[in-house]
């Protein structure tokens, strides 16, 4: 019996995808450029499964070229790179990897929040470049955390994990979300508020919502102007949740104090982008889930989803369970 053809858009360490060995015919694309291109595209007509990354677009055009496709498995929790309705219309289940990157992403969120609050990039650069004179009582002053307010936009798994960590730093918690989460309020003392109030009252605003039509451009000029002048914006969600041009102006003109970005729009952010020139903007290259453990588990779960789909079974983590007749 011939093995089902699977397209893997980017090489992964063999031990991360060991469960596929001997069960699929795996065709792997190159590390660069990102996405399905060249040779791999030529095999779409026989592909029964796709294992993709958040940088791969799985859209109508690609699906139309893959008539035998039975499962799409994303090695990410976010699925904004995939046209879910188009997959659902075709009865193709889409898998993702929730849970296993929650701690890594929440840790990174706190790392960049603290880094921006305490001006680590500027002070480290100054030390390295010989600008560390004597100990200065007024040098490199940053923001206090205890008693300050953190507003969390999107109280999903990662938002909650950030809230848990933030409590340890003595931050007060506000959150906005499509619906209140009474269990989070009870456990962590977080207050559910409309976004407008969150922006107005928070010293730190941390974004953890998915990217969708409702959240694209959510943090626009009006939102940035609504924030406190001393506030710090943290984005560990998706770049397009923030209007990049408005953010440049906000940081340049002092509408807010600083930003810490794990994600940007566009991504990757080209070296000539004005955000890099701003000393009050910390940018790291989408490394929220970049720990050995988290990335390996993401790949393993992506394989589990893929194999389940090929076997015609429910995916352990499916974003469109309606393809299995679930509501
Ligand atoms: C995800 O899985 O969506 C994350 O952005 C990866 O870091």
What's the SSE blueprint?
Layout: E1 5-8, E2 25-28, H1 38-41, E3 47-52, H2 60-64, E4 71-74, H3 84-89, E5 94-95, H4 102-117, H5 120-128, E6 149-153, H6 157-168, E7 172-176, H7 182-188, E8 191-192, H8 195-201, E9 204-207, H9 221-226, E10 232-235, H10 244-253, E11 258-261, E12 281-283, H11 292-310
Parallel strand pairs: 1-2, 1-3, 3-4, 4-5, 6-7, 6-9, 7-8, 9-10, 10-11, 11-12
Helix pairs in contact: 4-6
(2R)-2,3-dihydroxypropanoic acid binds next to loops.
Structure description:
- The structure is a single chain.
- The protein is of the alpha/beta class.
- The protein folds into two domains: 5-100 and 292-324, NAD(P)-binding Rossmann-like Domain (Rossmann fold, 3-Layer(aba) Sandwich); 102-283, Rossmann fold (3-Layer(aba) Sandwich).
- Helices cover 31% and strands 14% of the residues.
- The protein has eleven helices and twelve strands.
- The protein has helices at 38-41, 60-64, 84-89, 102-117, 120-128, 157-168, 182-188, 195-201, 221-226, 244-253, 292-310, and strands spanning 5-8, 25-28, 47-52, 71-74, 94-95, 149-153, 172-176, 191-192, 204-207, 232-235, 258-261, 281-283.
- The strands form two sheets. It has a seven-stranded parallel sheet, sandwiched between helices. A five-stranded parallel sheet has the order 2-1-3-4-5.
- Helix 4 crosses helix 6.
- The longest helix has 19 residues, at 292-310.
- It starts with a strand and ends in a 17-residue tail after the last helix.
- (2R)-2,3-dihydroxypropanoic acid binds at residues 54, 76-78, 101, 288-289.
């Amino acid at each position: 019996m011939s093995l089902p053809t699977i397209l893997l858009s980017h090489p992964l360490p063999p031990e991360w995808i060991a469960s596929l060995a001997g069960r699929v015919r795996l065709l792997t694309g190159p590390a660069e450029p990102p996405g399905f291109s060249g040779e791999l595209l030529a095999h779409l007509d026989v592909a029964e499964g796709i294992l993709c990354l958040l940088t791969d677009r799985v859209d109508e055009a690609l699906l139309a070229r893959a008539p035998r496709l039975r499962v799409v498995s994303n090695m990410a929790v976010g699925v904004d790179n995939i046209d879910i309705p188009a997959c659902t219309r075709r009865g193709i289940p889409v898998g993702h990897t929730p849970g296993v990157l929650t701690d890594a992403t929440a840790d990174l969120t706190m790392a960049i929040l603290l880094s921006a609050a305490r001006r680590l990039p500027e002070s480290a650069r100054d030390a390295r470049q010989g600008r560390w004179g004597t100990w200065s009582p007024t040098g490199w002053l940053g923001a206090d955390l205890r008693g300050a307010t953190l507003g969390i936009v999107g109280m999903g798994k990662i938002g909650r994990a950030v809230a848990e960590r933030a409590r340890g730093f003595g931050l007060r918690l506000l959150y906005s979300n499509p619906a209140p989460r009474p269990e989070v309020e009870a456990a962590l003392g977080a207050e559910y508020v409309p976004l407008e109030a969150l922006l107005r009252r928070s010293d730190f605003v941390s974004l953890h919502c998915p990217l969708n039509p409702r959240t694209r451009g959510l943090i626009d000029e009006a939102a940035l102007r609504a924030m406190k002048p001393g506030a710090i914006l943290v984005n560990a969600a998706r770049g397009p949740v923030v209007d990049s041009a408005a953010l440049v102006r906000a940081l340049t003109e002092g509408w807010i104090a600083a930003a810490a970005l794990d994600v940007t729009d566009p991504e990757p952010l080209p070296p000539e982008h004005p955000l890099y020139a701003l000393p009050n903007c910390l940018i790291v290259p989408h490394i929220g889930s970049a720990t050995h453990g988290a990335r390996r588990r993401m790949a393993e779960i992506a394989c589990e989803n893929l194999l389940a789909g090929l076997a015609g079974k429910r995916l352990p983590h499916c974003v469109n369970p309606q393809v299995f007749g679930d509501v």
